[in-house]
Amino acid sequence: MRIGVAISGGMDSATAALLLQNEGHDIVALYMRLVEDSETAIANAHKVAGLIKTPLHVIDLVNDFRKLVLGHFVQEYQVGRTPSPCPRCNRFIKFDILGKHAREMGCEKIATGHYAQILEKDGRLNLVKARDTTKDQSYFLFMLTPEILERTIFPLGNWKKTQVRSFLKDIDLVFSQSKESQELCFIENNDYVSFLQEMGCRSAPGPIMDSRGNILGEHTGIINYTVGQRRGLGVCGPYPRYVLRIDHKANSVVIGFKDETLVKGATICDLNILRPDLDLSNQDLHVKVRSTSRPVPCRIKNIDLDQLDFEFFEPQSSVAPGQAAVFYLEDTVVMGGWINATF
Fold first, then answer.
1. Which of 51, 130, 224, 240 is deepest in the core (most CB within 10 A)?
2. Of the residues 185, 236, 269, 298, which is catalytic?
3. Residue 236 catalytic?
4. Domain end point (choices 217, 241, 256)
């Protein structure tokens, strides 16, 4: 089978390509150029392509990435929300646009180094958590459609990260001991405020208030704050305070104590339902509301075609509008959407 493999120059995509080649597949190495200054990453991707003895096809997606991912990222911060760009990048850049390039090159499927599984169950393909739950990336893939799953392969879904390192060490790849990047790939040193400013995002100082409307101080611009933030608030007191919400229309930041961060549930918009055959309002679901959080039990209320309300079994803290909420039935992703508001 002719398979397009998204090569980043890192260990995971390299392992994915090598595994598929070892299975006898014809590999087309694809590199997505997303930012202008990506020469080092391209050089590493060329090295990986050299290992599998195939040319590297560099696909220039700078404009698409800026329009579909970076533009949305900046817009969300400007209105006081906390965006999660990776699901949008996966859907629109990797699997829509890059996938189209792969098909034009004669590829039947596209593969990436994501830690997730695509398994058949109930007569359909399902997006399922990776075997290595510490590296599972299914949360970031919730926007994929059943049609995309049919033409996608995740070779590392049943692998543990330790196996990947051992595999690369055994074939003497120098980056088998390299450190992984845990931050956004397009922001250097995780300095997202400087990045937003470079993108033309500006926000003026305004009031820091408590939940009763009392002014406690002045913030430096809403782009410097996210829901759940504790440090750098500039407000002194005997107990820690956290950002509860950001009101971009009033240009205010509302803070409160730990117990005030708890919410009962949230409203989700722009739903992507991967299991439309299930009555999701009558399932034992868990929801994950941040990439670093664990899935917790919830109940669906007022589900519509494009939005729903859900409630946690137990109130949760620091649930941020703009982040993704991904719903699981056991280990299977059944749907996901974007947190619009909390209650």
1. 130
2. 185
3. no
4. 256
The answer as to whether 187 is a domain residue is no
pLDDT tens for each residue of the chain, 343 residues long: 999 999 988 889 999 999 999 999 999 999 999 987 667 778 888 888 888 889 999 999 999 999 999 999 999 999 999 999 999 999 999 999 999 999 999 999 999 999 999 999 888 999 999 999 999 999 999 999 999 999 999 999 999 988 998 888 777 665 544 445 556 777 877 788 888 888 888 889 999 999 999 999 999 999 999 999 998 898 888 889 999 999 999 999 999 999 999 999 999 999 999 999 988 888 899 999 999 899 999 999 888 778 899 999 999 998 999 999 999 999 999 999 999 999 9
- Cβ neighbors of 205 (< 8 A, separation 6 or more) are 218, 219, 220, 221
CA 330/CA 311 separation, integer angstroms: 18
The Cα 68–Cα 92 span in angstroms is: 7
Residue from 322, 324, 326 nearest 340 by CA = 322
Which of the residues 89, 107, 236, 269 is marked catalytic? 89
The type of residue at 140 is F
Does residue 185 have an active-site annotation? yes
Same domain as 17, residue 103: yes
For the chain, how many structural domains are there in total? 3
Q: Looking at the structure, tell me whether residues 134 and 85 fall in a common domain.
A: yes
Q: Which helix (H) or strand (E) holds 76?
A: helix 71-78
Asked if residue 186 belongs to a domain, the reply is no
Contacts 24+ apart (CB under 8 A), 35-38: 35/62, 35/65, 35/186, 36/62
| Residue 58 domain flag | yes
Q: Residue 207 maps to which CATH number?
A: 2.30.30.280
| Claim to verify: residue 221 and residue 117 sit in the same structural domain | no
Which ranges in 139-266 belong to alpha helices (H)?
146-150, 161-170, 192-198
**Judgement on whether residues 245 and 311 belong to the same structural domain of the protein:** no
Q: Under a CB-based contact definition with an 8 Å cutoff, are residues 272 and 145 in contact? A: yes
